[in-house]
Design brief:
The chain is of the alpha+beta class and 111 residues long. The protein is 21% helix and 26% strand. The strands form two sheets. It has a three-stranded antiparallel β-sheet with strand order 3-5-4, with no helix packed on it. It is globular, with a radius of gyration of 16 Å.
Length: 111
C-alpha cells in the first residue's frame, strides 16, 4: 500500500504544519484550500485515518462518496464522523463486500 501513496501527490490539512516530511506532500491551511482543490478537478481526494477531518468535510458538504470498513472488533469508544449540526446528508449504499476476516467494505454514494 505504501508504494502507490509514495508516488502520488498528498495533501495535509493543517493550520500548524508548514513543511511536511513525506515526499510529494503539500499543506492545505484551511477548508477553502480543500474546496479550491476539488474545484480544480485534479481527480479523487481520499481521507485516510482522520475522523476529525472527515467530520468537517461532511459538515461542509464536501463529500461525494464514502468507502468505509466495518470490522467486528470492539476497539473502544471509537470516533464518529457524522456532524452534530442536525442537517441530513443523504448517501445510498452502492456496494457491500464481505472480507475473509468478517469485515465489510461499504461504498456509499451521494443519494
Amino acid at each position: 500500500m505504501a508504494d502507490p501513496l509514495n508516488h502520488k501527490p498528498k495533501y495535509v490539512v493543517s493550520s500548524t504544519l508548514s513543511a511536511p516530511e513525506w515526499s510529494g506532500s503539500s499543506v492545505l491551511p484551511d477548508l477553502a484550500a480543500v474546496s479550491e482543490l476539488t474545484k480544480a478537478g485534479g481527480g479523487e481526494l481520499h481521507v485516510i485515518g482522520s475522523a476529525q477531518l472527515a467530520a468537517v468535510l461532511l459538515a461542509e458538504d464536501l463529500v461525494d462518496e464514502l468507502r468505509l470498513m466495518v470490522d467486528p472488533v470492539r476497539l473502544g469508544g471509537g470516533k464518529g464522523i457524522w456532524p452534530s449540526d442536525g442537517a441530513l446528508r443523504s448517501f445510498a449504499l452502492n456496494s457491500c463486500t464481505p472480507t475473509s476476516t468478517g469485515a465489510l467494505l461499504l461504498h456509499y454514494v451521494r443519494g
